Amino acid sequence: MIEVFERENVTCGKVQISIAGQKANPVFVFIVDGMLIDTGPERAEASLIPFYENYSFELVTLTHSHEDHSGTAPWIEKNRNVPIYVHPNGIEICAEPYPYPLYRQLTWGKREAFTAVPLGDTIQSRSREWEVIYTPGHADDHVSLFNKETGQLFSGDLFVHPETKVIMNTESIPVIMDSIRKLLTYDFDSMFCCHAGFIQNGKKVLKEKLENLENLTGEVKEFYQQGLSLEEINAKLFPKKYPIITISEGEWDSLHIVSSIIAEFQ
Ligand SMILES: [Zn+2]
Predict the structure, then answer these.
(1) What digits encode the pLDDT tens for the residues 195-225?
(2) Is the pTM of this model over 0.85?
């Protein structure tokens, strides 16, 4: 249930969760230079414990506090004497037991409370210094990690997929676009995404994602100026109704893509 491989001196652990026979997005954890980046979902704990036993690390950095990234942090807190860092906005979320709806508890597991330490502007692994880049939009406590010497970027959940079809009601497309623009000012090539894994031409694919979102913004703007309602624009641009919209009772919906874009014009 865990696949482990090396890319550019980064140990990549890939876990795959199924819910009611359906495969969820794969989730990656990474170890680079003695730093564990993200801890996977609680439901993958049985696979991740042997991984933690085989590969050593002295600190943990969470790209954000979502349950598919922080799920085994409570196990690490109990069994390893290492600090677990998260952006200051995530500290209180980590201190709460499973602060998210039931369908997410069923999918990813119940992440218990744990104590996280606030990240600063940089984080030091064994021999490298990483820049902590605040990149909100997907989550309020989302960071990316960049190393100047290696040109490596850990992008958390900012990339995931080149085409965005549904987002959560807490996400914002314009804020995501600003965060991508910020990352594109850095001199990186390869990118480690927590769901897509290792991407060698990371900067290129991130640029493409930004272009897609810029085009989408243009389309929304045009329909909006023609006087179409939020629902009408959504039906035109996203005719497909994904199962997650119903399963999540609308926490995930393409409607949030359109409404977050429209909010910028008002
Ligand atoms: Zn996330």
Answers:
(1) 999 999 999 999 999 999 999 999 999 999 9
(2) yes
Q: How far is the CA of 194 from the centre of ligand 1 (A)?
A: 9
- Give residue 155 CA to ligand 1 midpoint distance, Å: 11
- C-alpha of residue 163 to centroid of ligand 1, in Å: 16
- Using one digit for the tens of pLDDT, what is the confidence trace for 43-63? 999 999 999 999 999 999 999
| Cα of 68 from ligand 1 centre, angstroms | 7
CA distances from 256 to 75, 156, 179, 207, 221 (A): 34, 21, 18, 22, 15
User: What's the 100 CA to ligand 1 centre distance in angstroms?
Assistant: 12
Expressed in angstroms and rounded, the spacing between residue 108 Cα and the centre of ligand 1 is 12
CA distances from 220 to 177, 236, 242, 244 (A): 15, 10, 20, 22
| CATH (residue range 2-217) | 3.60.15.10
Measured in Å, residue 79 CA sits from the centre of ligand 1 at 25
Q: Tell me how far the alpha carbon of residue 139 lies from the centroid of ligand 1, in angstroms.
A: 7
CA distance 256 to 2: 33
Q: Which tokens is 140 given?
A: 């309020």
Q: Which residues of 250-266 are buried (b: 16+ CB within 10 A; e: fewer)?
A: ebbbbbbbbbbbbeeee
Residue 102, classed as helix, strand or coil, is helix
> Is a pLDDT exceeding 90 seen at residue 19?
no
Residues 43/108, Cβ–Cβ less than 8 Å: yes
Interhelix angle 255-265/202-225, rounded to 10 degrees, is 70
CA distances from 152 to 112, 131, 132, 198, 233 (A): 31, 11, 12, 10, 38
Q: What distance in angstroms lies between residue 197's CA and the mean position of ligand 1's atoms?
A: 14
